[in-house]
Amino acid sequence: MEVQEDALQRIIATLANKNEELQNFIETLNHTLDRVQVNSTQVVSDLEEEFDTLYSILDEMKESMTNTIKQETVRKSHELQNQQTQSTNALESAEELLEFANNALHITDEGEFTKAAKQIKDRVTMAPAFRLTMKPKATDNMTHLMVDFIQERQLLQGLKFLPVPRAPEIVLEDCLVIDNEVTVTWRIPVEDSKIDHYILEYRKTNHEGLPRVKDEQCWEVVDNIKTSEYTLQGLRFDTKFMNFRVRACNKAAAGDYSDPVTLETRAFNFGFDSTSSHLNLKVEDRSVEWDPQGGKGVDTKVKGKENKGSDCQCLSDGFRSGTPSPKRTSVTRSPAPRGARDRFTGESYTVLGDTSIESGQHYWEVKPQKDCKSYSVGLAYRNLGKFDQLGKTNTTWCIHVNNWLQNSFAAKHNNKAKNLDVPVPDSIGVYCDFDRGQLSFYNAENKQLLHTFKVRFTQPVVPAFMVWCGGLTLSTGLQIPSAIRSFQKTENGLGGSNSSISPQDPSVACDICFYDKLPSVDSSLMP
């Protein structure tokens, strides 16, 4: 019966998955049909616009060339008319001189005849008829203004739709997701020398498989890619997957999209749980800041010296403490301005993460403010007491930085501390391998190992933080850096890290296994 029920459950799950795939495919078809109509209307509109532009250019060229012909006609007519006027005047002058010469033949007086003959000779020499060019200054030929449209007509008759590049193919086995970077590689099925560039589109999603038409994220675009590979850098993996598609473009048009691919981008995402924080902490999703007035009145009487380099009032009462004690500070609590935010009280300026770790490997980073006086970063069980401080119980593990009075950098657990003889980094990376029972801290910049705890976790853990006189910024959605993965593989292959506080096995032989040797640490020295 149980076997049949399990088999039926598997069949139901298979059918449900197939139904979901079919529904998504039908939505894709409907979307494609709608886009066909929209795109068809658009290309017809674009075509009409192009032809209208071509008509406009032809009309402009026609008008320009017609004006040229008219100007040439006017020029020739003007020159011929001037020449005609000059010839007419010359003819009239010649006819008058001819008549004068004929009359001179009838003069009988030799003196008068000689005088008339000399005048005729002088006038003939200066006559316009003998000074004019008997060749027209312009011809009636206008063939030099004719246009040969054979080539243009052939071009127009040969007008075709643009050649569109083939859709690229994304090479899934060459795509790489590492260190919060995604490298996408593709190829063109048929060589095309006219491809000018590529367009890559991507979007985040929590749905595995083919991209859905109705998705919560929009496609983001990377244009003008000149090679067949592109790397997206500095990503925050706040979804389980990312969809990718690419298209090729020539100088004129963009081709079809490639078949989309889905790459897995799982990472540990969490924020600060404001409901778990101390009232003096101002909490946002990924930042927390110490607020001396949070949840308290302003009537605060402080004994001791004031730390002039800080806005925080620090106390000295026969011994030094990293954080002011409520027992030595007179306050009046206002009536719960932040609701039920009293998860932690006293000196435990603590806030927990809002997501538990129950298995697997996870990584996140924490960056303190430059002037932060004291902070801790680590892990804790959910049952952390409201007065408990990180590192002072057997259910918390952390590294602690104190920049007030006595600078210190130490790993803490169960009220025992190990001073770390390395510079305090600007940003701390936290690596948790729940299944192997390992908690490691790194310099987030150069991935230098700072400290490792070996732990047998007996219940889910949550990221835990303490901050006083300053603030912390949280970076999540990070993959485990490749440098840390490589280091962990090496360490695990050699039998584990050699730098740990191991409360479960205090006899483990290593240079800092001081569990039985280390005296109890005075809580007044550990804010």
Automatic annotation (TrEMBL):
Transmembrane segments: none
CDD domains to which the protein is assigned, alphabetical: FN3 (cd00063), SPRY_PRY_FSD1 (cd12901)
Composition bias type Polar residues, residue spans: 322-333
Coiled-coil portions: 1-64
Residue span, COS domain: 105-162
Domain B30.2/SPRY: residue ranges: 280-483
Residues in Fibronectin type-III domain copies: 164-268
InterPro entries linked to this entry: B30.2/SPRY, B30.2/SPRY_sf, Bbox_C, Butyrophylin_SPRY, ConA-like_dom_sf, COS_domain, E3_ligase_FN3/SPRY, FN3_dom
Domain of life, source organism: Eukaryota
Keywords: Coiled coil
Full protein name: Fibronectin type III and SPRY domain containing 1 like
Species in which this protein is naturally found: Sinocyclocheilus grahami (Dianchi golden-line fish)
Lineage, top ranks: Eukaryota, Metazoa, Chordata, Craniata, Vertebrata
